[in-house]
Amino acid sequence: MITLYTWGTPNGHKISIALEELALPYDVRPIDITKGDQQTPDFLQLNPNGKIPVITDDEGPGGKPITLSESGAILLYLAGKTGRLMPQDLRERLEVMQWLMFQMGSVGPMLGQAHHFMRFAPDLIPYAMERYSKEAQRIYGVLESRLAGRTWLAGQDYSIADIATFPWIARHDWQGIDLKRFPSVQRWYDTIRARPAVERGMSIP
């Protein structure tokens, strides 16, 4: 059985969406990051970095339990465990990994900063707000260019690259982004949002 330690953030939603898409049985353990649950001794035993999500799998590699943190690593593990959401063709696999890394290195960190300075910072800092607003616009431009004439971010099918990116785009309003300015991203977003497993995953916890 898989146990998911998570909260209602884009990084947490990546994993709940993947688990729903893969129809893997799992238990949810909410970690309320607004109350500091991620810094408790018990949670730090699972992830010394004090971040969600984390999974434990009683039936890990070789049938032995495994604990994993870092959402990208968890997505790669779940895809490998099931043989789904990741192409078999090597070129397409590398393409998916490339766009997964783009999410981890650019989409998440930069849009996360936009969330912080435009929505949560106790004081308005015009320089930071302008910096991350511009970076958000740039990232959406990259995604628009990539998705023009394509159904999915990488490969021929829906993959963990799409799953990793979607929850961040789902908060476009927090980033001051009007999706109408990015029609290819809008089409891709609407297609994924309509998937029943995505709707279920986005509601967890």
Automatic annotation (TrEMBL):
Family designation: Belongs to the GST superfamily.
Superkingdom classification of source: Bacteria
GST C-terminal domain: residues covered: 89-205
Organism whose genome encodes this protein: Azoarcus taiwanensis
Domain GST N-terminal: 1-86
The protein's name in its UniProt record: Glutathione S-transferase family protein
A Pfam family of this chain: GST_N
Alphabetical list of SUPFAM superfamilies matching this protein: GST C-terminal domain-like, Thioredoxin-like
PROSITE patterns (UniProt xref): GST_CTER, GST_NTER
